[in-house]
Amino acid sequence: MRCPRLLLESEALAAGQLLPAPQDRLHYATTVLRLKSGAPCRVFDGLGNEFDATLELTDRRHGTFHLGERAAAPTHPAFPIHLLQGMARGDHMDLAIQKAVELGVQSIRPVLCERSRSAAAHKGLEKRQRHWQGILQAAVEQCGRNELPALHQPALPAAALAECPDSLGLLAEEGAPGLDDRLVARGHPPGAVALYIGPEGGLTPAEREQARAGGFLGVGMGPRTLRTETAAMALITLVQARLGDLRG
Known about the structure:
Elements: E1 5-7, E2 18-20, H1 23-32, E3 39-44, E4 50-59, E5 62-72, E6 81-86, H2 90-102, E7 107-111, H3 125-143, E8 150-151, H4 157-162, E9 168-172, H5 179-186, E10 193-197, H6 205-213, E11 217-219, H7 228-243
Helix pairs in contact: 2-3, 2-7
């Protein structure tokens, strides 16, 4: 049976530490994971440090994690992928973030596109950001990563493009050349890739031109029209298979 993993966001963890369990983590450990006093688990700090641990309960509201030996090497992505995800409606955005984490992206930037407004994307951004952070953290615990991808604050397209790390920019676009064609034309592998995915309904023509002016290249993903969350998963997987840690 797989050992339960819990994220403890704090300063870098170290072997031998005794850490009082935060209330939210204690509740998750005892209620969701159903851990009893003395149960083995693993804890990690989101910085790449992961340790075998034991949970010792004093009572229902108090417990301590006893850290043992280092249990895993840091899981920092072998190839940097930055996702610019047009903000979509609830479950669609949740799924895009969850699967991007599982597939090994280094950072995620929600983008407030023109067609995101139909999803009331400009309302309650602080609450949505906290919700997405929870989605990200749960995905990290589930998939075996011990470092947290960066989840940036939502931004308008111009700011998102300006703040994008130096990388090969790829824009999901129907009818465009495939990824292999783009890489062959480039002639040498990039050091990082930024992927720009539109929301439901896609990017507007003006947003596409804005992205192209920022150096992004259109890349196609076959003859079918993909939902926004599917497009994100498909393009990340293609890049990981060609350049990252899915090459075998």
